[in-house]
Design brief:
The complex is a heterotrimer of chains A (about 160), B (about 260) and C (about 270). Chain A has two helices and seven strands, in the order H-E-E-E-E-E-E-E-H. By secondary structure, chain A is of the alpha/beta class. In chain C, the strands form two sheets. Chain C has a six-stranded mixed beta sheet, with helices on both faces. In chain C, strands 2-1-4-5 form a four-stranded antiparallel beta sheet, covered by helices on one side. In chain C, helix 3 crosses helix 4, helix 3 runs parallel beside helix 5 and helix 4 crosses helix 5. Chain C is globular. The C terminus of chain C is likely disordered. Classes of the chains: A alpha/beta (about 160), B mainly alpha (about 260), C alpha/beta (about 270). Chains in contact: A-B, B-C.
Chain lengths: ~160, ~260, ~270
């Protein structure tokens, strides 16, 4: 094999291309976290989180602004969900967080609706206003129960 | 009946013997990599032979596989009204399974067999003995750079296969079938996760690289010094490496997806 | 602990060496001293074990018994690491040349120097050119081994074998596969190298004429034992086996060999 500069150049190109492909897949497609320890850390307590998973997206008006960092139990047995958000976000103190489903049977994620308060939430603070996840089976159960009751009343 | 059992015993012993021999060989490669002088020039040579020369086949096959996935995926998904998820289907299939496995099989066929043939020919033409007589360890000079290059090349080629596959799926889904381009890409983005998917894909690629690198160099090194020996060693590389790749694929998938 | 300057008669010695491959005995209890600084030839027919003898000296294979001394050190007792040190004193010309087919002639000849010494680029170039000139390949330095003729391959391999100034040069069938003129050329080169650099030269060959011309000491490997002596001694030997080996009556040998060997169990037809 002749050691030629051309050959070395081609190898260099190949390695760069490969690394670029890996980077594209990891960052853009795979969504490697861009916040890390410098993100805006907030938390909220929910009665029910449904199938919400760690690393699920957190969105504002449909735009992804961060993800779920961890999920645990608070002292009152509610679910405490920790968010890791874009540090440039300015969320008013009366922002509300709701757990929604993408589609009918899709994955759960958290949607934030910013409020109108003058005070801005700082890292480590709690989002007070929450809307828990809707569990489909319970909704259907309620519906059936209501229908039965309705029938019973009509009699 | 007795002969069958005896043959089985003999085969098992030979199998274990071969595994032991392979493990010793792997150990000597590892030791060589830690011994100076570093053969950087040889390593770059091998990156060229194994990587750059495989680029075209990887890109072509990647695009083709992605296009087929796009076609098959679209035809199936459209029945459930879920054609918008085509990006996710193509991306996940490629990243999790098809890219690392197909890249590994293609690389075994092209680069793996070339490696075995090259080393095997060197055995037959006494070049390895020549190196020993010049006080150069053939494992250090020839084998270790090849094995290391294979491990480095595999994740790079696998990632390129994936990217070209996504592109192939895009060509079919968007250009031919008329899906919306950004829908394709966003469904891909939302479905793919680094930890579960891309990370596992790269891990598989690296493991397969180790397998191919080890098996192809071992078979070349232990070629019987006849001309028939080289071709039999080359065939053996392709067969053994392919089977190992598929078996390891199962185990990695099972363990990683926990 | 070997002496710093080993006695000349421990320079290159086979001491009671036996070699067997599976059931086949190649030689038994062979003892021979190669005279330092002279050309020795190991003669024998095909399968007599001549090439095996060279590989034993280089430590590429182990004998089934006996010792092989190189400057007082027994190479059969050394590890691969330690052998690398001993091999620095040896230069080997393989039968097929064994040049690295990915490197040019120049790079091949420079290889031992680049790998094992810390000579500067200019020094290496000077040495390589000197050796290429000595073998007459001055203009071929940029060619690949695949572009060389058989004779050129042997000459390039010879240049590579001597470039690091070994004290012992081992040649495995240097004349095989060459036309008579090229063979004579190699023979002249070996004699010149021996004269100019004072290297001990061990040649393995089956060509009797050249052996008689250049050897100081000859070891003849016969099927039932070995015979040694100078060319003069062998020429006047009274041993019938030696006489028939040196002056083969080919017609008689062919007549005696008309009986084709029949494998046991095979039909004779």
């Amino acid at each position: 094999m002749r050691r030629s500069p051309m050959r070395d150049f081609l190898v260099g190109c190949f390695v760069l291309l490969g690394l670029a492909a890996i980077a594209y897949l990891s960052l853009s497609v795979g969504g490697v976290s861009y916040n890390g320890p410098k993100g805006l850390k907030l938390f909220a307590d929910f009665d029910e989180i449904g199938g919400l998973k760690v690393r699920a997206p957190v969105v504002v008006s449909g735009v992804k602004v961060g993800e779920i960092e961890s999920i645990g139990l608070a002292d009152d047995y509610r679910a405490r969900v920790h968010f890791n958000l874009d540090p440039s976000l300015k969320l008013p103190a009366d922002t509300s967080a709701s757990i929604v489903t993408s589609g009918v049977l899709g994955d759960r994620y958290v949607s934030l609706q910013p409020g109108a308060d003058d005070q801005i939430l700082a890292s480590g603070q709690q989002i007070e206003f929450v809307e828990s996840a809707v569990i489909l089976e319970r909704m259907i159960g309620k519906l059936i129960h209501n229908t039965d009751v309705g029938k019973g009343d009509a009699k | 009946m007795v002969t069958v059992v005896r043959d089985l015993g003999w085969l098992s012993l030979r199998f274990v013997e071969q595994l032991g021999s392979l493990a010793r060989f792997a150990g000597s490669i590892g030791a060589s990599l830690l011994t100076p002088p570093p053969r950087f020039g040889r390593f770059v040579d091998e990156l060229f032979k194994l990587g750059v020369l495989s680029l075209i086949i990887i890109c072509l096959c990647g695009t083709a596989v992605g296009a087929v996935l796009g076609l098959q995926g679209y035809n199936t998904l459209v029945r459930f009204g879920a054609a918008d998820s085509l990006g996710a289907v193509v991306g996940l299939s490629l990243i999790r399974e098809l890219a690392p496995v197909l890249t590994a099989l293609l690389t075994t066929g092209r680069a793996g067999s070339a490696t075995t043939a090259e080393i095997g020919t060197m055995v037959v033409t006494e070049q390895l003995d020549g190196l020993r007589m010049m006080s150069v360890d053939p494992v250090h000079y020839i084998v270790a750079p090849k094995a290391l290059a294979m491990v480095v090349v595999m994740p790079l080629l696998s990632a390129l296969f994936t990217v070209f596959g996504i592109f192939g799926g895009y060509l079919v889904g968007v250009r031919v079938m008329g899906l919306d381009g950004s829908t394709y890409l966003s469904s891909l983005d939302s479905a793919v996760d680094f930890e579960n998917d891309v990370g596992g894909s790269l891990l598989k690629a690296v493991v397969f690289g180790v397998l191919i690198g080890l098996i192809s160099t071992y078979r070349g090194f232990t070629t019987a010094p006849t001309s028939a020996g080289v071709s039999s060693a080359t065939t053996s590389t392709v067969v053994v490496a392919s089977v190992c790749i598929l078996i390891f694929d199962y185990f990695i998938t099972a363990l990683w997806g926990v | 602990m070997p002496d710093a300057r080993p006695a000349p008669d421990l320079h290159l010695v086979f001491d009671d060496v036996s070699m067997a491959f599976a059931a086949r005995h190649v030689f038994d209890h062979l003892s021979f001293r190669f005279p330092p600084g002279r050309i020795s030839v190991i003669l024998g027919g095909s399968g007599s074990g001549k090439s095996t003898a060279l590989r034993l000296i280089g430590g590429l294979i182990q004998p089934s018994g006996g010792r092989i001394l190189v400057d007082g050190e027994d190479v059969t007792a050394l590890s691969e690491r330690q052998l690398y040190r001993v091999r620095a004193k040896l230069g080997m010309l393989f039968q097929s040349g064994a040049l690295l087919d990915a490197l040019t002639v120049f790079e091949n000849v420079a290889f031992p120097l680049r790998q094992r010494t810390r000579l500067s680029g200019a020094d290496i170039e000077a040495r390589v050119r000197e050796c290429l000139d000595a073998v007459g390949l001055t203009d071929a330095d940029d060619l690949l081994p695949s572009q060389l003729s058989g004779g050129m391959v042997k000459r390039a391999a010879l240049a590579r074998a001597i470039v690091a100034r070994p004290s012992i040069l081992l040649c495995d069938e240097p004349f095989s596969g060459l036309d008579p003129i090229s063979a004579r050329r190699i023979e002249a080169l070996l004699v010149e190298i021996n004269g100019r650099f004072g290297m001990t030269v061990v040649v393995v060959s089956h060509d009797i004429a050249s052996t008689m011309r250049m050897a100081a000491q000859v070891l003849v490997l016969l099927p039932d034992g070995a015979v040694e002596g100078s060319p003069e001694e062998l020429r006047h030997s009274t041993d019938a086996r030696v006489a028939s080996f040196l002056n083969p009556d080919l017609d008689a040998a062919l007549a005696g060999a008309t009986q084709v060997e029949v494998a046991p169990g095979a039909a004779a037809w």
